[in-house]
Amino acid sequence: MYDCVLKNAKLIGQNNEVYIAIEKGKIAKISKSSLNGENEIDLEGKLVLPGLIDPHVHFRDPGLTYKEDFKTGSMAAANGGFTFVMDMPNTLPKTNTYKHFKDKLKIANDKSVIGFGLHAGVNSFEEMVKIQSLNPMSFKCFMDLETDDELDEIFKNVSNLDNNPILSLHCENKEIIESQMIKIKKENDENPAIDYSYVRNAESEIASLKQAILLTKKYGNNLHVCHLSTKKALNLAISNRISYEFTPHHLLFDNSKFNDLGTIIRTNPPLREVNTKVSISDISESTIMGTDHAPHSLEEKTRGTWNSASGIPSIEVVLSLMLTEVNKGNLDLSLIPKIFSENVAKRFNLSSKGFVKENYDADLIVVDLDKSGVFDIDNFYTKAEYSPFEGMSYKGEVTMVICNGDVIMDNHDIIL
Fold it and tell me: Which residues have a catalytic role annotated?
């Protein structure tokens, strides 16, 4: 008898409902015939998908926990269907030393209700050698914060680390941003919120990625582009065989949203003009979805065009947003497990995750494609008190999350 059996489960690509047996945190057997378990859950034909994996979150722990912490962030992730997340290094202190990386590992181990990995910040070669012993998911470089000489040194050092680890990039060009800021401030004494998107314009992302490609030709780096937002940058990534991730806000909104929501919608890179942006139709078999879940306090989000904080919390809504596109006929259902689970597991070497297969981790979610509703931030677990998705209608949602064989979310109740 198995620890747990999911009865009458629907899998993508199979006509018949199946039984999924879980034993010691693993998927032990998938069968069309009846299986018995100490705990049996009848899914009544609902869809089972691999647990979602988010390669890009900002859980703000340590140092900025008034915005989010690893407990609230991981609860929010579970509520959205995620069973594994990868946290970014721009906390306080930055996760760019062996000590700070090790400290954050302990924090996450103590607080997280789901699986996690940590990205590391770049530093001296000697320090990154030490960090690498702790198995970071990647080394993260914010290109908009570095000079050309510094970038050259970073790309060289990361390429010389053992096994050439992934170098994750925030692609915006420092010089373009600084020159655009001077130009646009001169043109208008009172800048509306939308001007932020013209300072950090599409060309900034494209130029930054071109620079990264040139440096990679020099040093042979293993690149991954975070929150890719423009069509031209997408074409560059594809033609150079560079992995990339999309966010829901860059896919669904354009910069006219500034006129409705002001600085609440501010993020880096910003929303793009409609003729330059990526869209749902750009999602392909090789796409990775990342939320860039980045909460701030409401006060920090409303300090005016230039002083407001950049970041959008979206980890609790992204799956329903994409399932809504499936229900509209804009996205094929078969792409959902690829973009949320399979592709990211392969890219970041999570060898036992990302698939509903025997001997893989029992990280699973149950989805009701017909369940509809309206996003209400009062029902979210994140500490963020704002969302650009508030009040939007959706169709399709996660109703159960199983992580490491245990039910941790059932009808949006987190089970600790």
Answer: 292
